[in-house]
Amino acid sequence: MVIRSIFFILIFCVQTGLWGQSFPGRSDFIIVENPAVLTIYNVYQQPLSTKQKQKLGTFVPVQIIQENDFLGDGLTPVVKGIIAHKVVFILQNEKKFDIYRHCKIFDDTLFAQRKGLGIWRRLKGKKRYIVLEKGNRFHRIFEWKRYFYGLVLPSTPPLYGWIKKPLTTKWKKLKAERKPVTTLLPTAIRNRLWQRITAANTDYRHFFTWINNSKKTKLPVPVWVQEQDKNELKFVLKPDSMSEHLSRSTAKLLEDLQGYLIGSPWKIFYKKGVIRVKIQ
After folding, report:
1. What is the pLDDT of residue 135?
2. Domains of the chain, start order
């Protein structure tokens, strides 16, 4: 009875997710014209500084994971989304966003073969057109109606905008570079996955230490352990007997991990306390 009560408490101590939600070839997006004036939280629900928000650029595309979500307090309404493979929470009620529904997701690059090509910064209101140089690249992020939205390369801070369909011969699609399967998962993304796993381990350690001290119990403290072989990255929950009790918190963890892999060929697979990150 004590164990059942403990895990009932744990469910409400961890923000729940919607595992089973897939990230197929289409998604909803919003475009944040000026992130610096909004309240944006990172995956740990800590507010980004003004400098961090400025580095995101302007007219930033946000892939929506959950349009109406809440922070861990259960009271603060946010939009949960992805910016450049990072999970963020954007405070609602500060600004109304135009939502681009059912957009087809892209992850490829176009090459500008001549001068005079450019991008529109917005489609509504004052349409600012920016001319690109020959040799600039355009990394497509999503397609909406008759337009592609993407990132100009190189650009610092990031320069986002629209180009109109159909593509002419002025644009050339670059062939994806072939890489061995073991190098397809970038180090930066692998590190973010591990950081999120580490955060979950810290939460479990604090929670179960508190429970054991206050309830005079000796429950094992669950921990995710990283393993890796040639073709996949794997996280294993120890002891595995805890997996059935942590289903809700694991669902939230899986949702966040999947967010880091948007646009990549890698996917999250889960079964009985084992998380696998591998090519689908």
Report:
1. 82
2. 24-100 (no CATH), 103-173 (2.30.30), 181-279 (no CATH)
